[in-house]
């Protein structure tokens, strides 16, 4: 089975995944400014992972049209649900603190990488892996700086928690 995509298609796919990641990061930035737990990395990973699942679904559905009644997308949907349960187990609450959220989101994206690889969409899998490493490493530093600035602004200037 070969799910071949052209170089032009590959660039369009990379653009879609990158846009999803950037928009997720923007949403996460707002959440940091609002002093919420999930931030830039978590939102970036979830948005990117969702886009990969949609893109892979579209490619695979096109390949399997009129070929089988089993539907390989059913398998993928069950992987997504199963990983969601595993990810939920990684999230730990301690008082008003939460940990493991980015790890759970990263696990979900790893499932998207695995599904992409399983369907032979290697370029997508490699590209998403690179973006995920970017989010885990470089964006960690950026997110911490934003958190520091948000804390200084929201709590030091007017003494009011502008939590919305």
Tally of contiguous helical segments:
6
Radius of gyration: 18 Å
* Total beta-strand segments: 2
User: What's the number of structural domains?
Assistant: 1
Unreliable segments of 5+ consecutive residues: 155-164
Question: Helix/strand-derived class?
Answer: mainly alpha
**Could you give the order of the helices and strands?**
HHHEEHHH
Whole-number mean pLDDT: 81
Assess the beta-strand content as a share of residues: under 5%
Helix fraction? over 70%
Q: Which word captures the global form?
A: globular
Distance between the first and last residues' Cα: 50 Å
Order of strands in the sheet with most strands? 1-2
How would a crystallographer describe the biggest sheet?
2 strands, antiparallel
Assembly classification: single chain
């Amino acid at each position: 089975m070969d799910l071949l995509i052209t170089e032009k298609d590959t660039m369009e796919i990379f653009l879609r995944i990158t846009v999803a990641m950037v928009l997720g990061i923007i949403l996460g930035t707002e959440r940091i400014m609002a002093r919420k737990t999930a931030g830039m990395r978590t939102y970036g990973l979830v948005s990117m992972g969702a886009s990969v699942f949609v893109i892979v679904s579209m490619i695979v559905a096109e390949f399997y049209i009129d070929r089988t009644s089993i539907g390989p997308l059913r398998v993928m949907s069950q992987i997504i649900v199963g990983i969601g349960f595993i990810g939920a187990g990684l999230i730990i609450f301690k008082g008003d603190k939460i940990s493991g959220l980015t790890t759970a989101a990263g696990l979900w994206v790893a499932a998207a990488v695995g599904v992409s690889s399983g369907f032979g969409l290697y370029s997508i899998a490699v590209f998403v892996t690179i973006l995920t490493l970017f989010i885990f490493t470089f964006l960690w530093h950026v997110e911490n700086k934003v958190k520091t600035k948000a804390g200084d602004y929201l709590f030091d200037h007017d003494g009011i928690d502008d939590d919305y």
